[in-house]
Amino acid sequence: MNSDQIYFTWTELDRCADMRNQKNRIEQLKKIKTCHYVPVFEGKHLYPNQKHPFYISDKPVGQPERESFLGILHDELWFSCGLSEDEATYLEQQFNGKFESVREYAMALDEDLGHIALYSRGLDLWQRQKKYCSICGELNEIESVGHKMLCSNGHAQWPRIEPAIIVLVTKGDRCLLGRKHNWKPGVYSTLAGFVEAGETIEDAVYREVYEESNIRIKNVRYFGSQPWPFPASLMLAFQADGISEDIRLDDEMEDVRWFSRDELLQCHQDGSLILAPRFTVANSLISQFVGQPL
Ligand SMILES: [Zn+2]
Predict the structure, then answer these.
(1) Segment-wise mean pLDDT, segments of 10 residues, the chain, 294 residues
(2) pLDDT of res. 107
(3) Is rRNA-binding among this UniProt entry's keywords (predicted)?
């Protein structure tokens, strides 16, 4: 496995950024092309009867000003439609379903739909959080078919992404996993943390591993990335070689341990070790290390 196997990172969706300020062109295309409208409420999608995939309408849903242009996939136009609470409740009743996080049904989505779910979630959460201008406090208006916020004083804002690093440290036949205090019993994962202001991603990898485990590393290799709109991260995944042995915990971690491949496989099989879900890049890193999907 390599970074090609990270879930929801490959799609033929063309985001058509050049069309975001050509509303008339999009309206013309709507008349002649197939269109898909994805209702989104607080970053969640509607699963009718708790079934997958999420509900996609062939007609606009909700208020036109909350319609965002996602792009063109296989010559068809895709939009996300941000709903109010009343609109979401109405749709839930109409389809006997619930708005749920993409986490719940991720493995039931194909690559394109998984990508669209993460994309529309990230955009919707950003729009909801940016209701007011963060410079002057005036009400923001959504511009550029969903991709820009503009207040009456002309302050423009675009979606902000928060980069986070995630790293699998290995030493011979063992890898380093940790758990935080508030995690469910048995859950362990790769070490991770946010990139800080003024820091390179490489520095963040060294710093986070050392802070959380006291382990020094070398030979840091880029593995791949995954959009992670929970609410606005981009996971940047790495592999690294551990060059020290003794673990010391910081306040953030409840435990950090070295696991051998055999121990990982056995504990995963008997249920005493719970890893991040299959669709996460943390799982991809660990699966790649043990040589089979976990
Ligand atoms: Zn402003």
Answers:
(1) 73 96 96 98 91 90 96 98 98 94 90 95 97 96 97 97 98 97 96 97 97 97 95 97 95 95 96 95 96 91
(2) 87
(3) no
Q: In the prediction, which pLDDT does 104 show?
A: 87
What pLDDT, on the 0 to 100 scale, is given for residue 141? 97
Q: How far is the CA of 139 from the centre of ligand 1 (A)?
A: 8
Q: Are 53 and 111 in contact (CB under 8 A)?
A: no
Check which CATH number belongs to the domain holding 183 and give it.
3.90.79.10
For 207, the domain range is 162-290
Question: How far is Cα 211 from Cα 187, in angstroms, rounded to an integer?
Answer: 20
**Structure token digits, residue 71:** 């792009």
CA of 156 relative to ligand 1 center, distance in Å = 7
* Ligand 1: centre distance to CA 159 (Å): 15
Total number of domains constituting the chain: 2
Q: Which of 110, 134, 157 is at the close of a domain?
A: 157
Q: Name the phi and psi angles at 186, rounded to 5.
A: 90, -10
Q: CA 258, CA 213: separation in Å to the nearest integer?
A: 10
> What are the counts of helices (DSSP H) followed by strands (DSSP E) for the chain?
7, 14
Do residue 93 and residue 183 come from a single domain? no
Q: Quick one: pLDDT at residue 247?
A: 96
CB atoms within 10 A of CB 209: 27
Q: What is the pLDDT of residue 52?
A: 75
What is the 161 CA–ligand 1 centroid distance (Å)? 20
Q: Select from 168, 174, 133 the least CA-distant residue to 150.
A: 133
CA of 29 to the centre of ligand 1 (A): 33
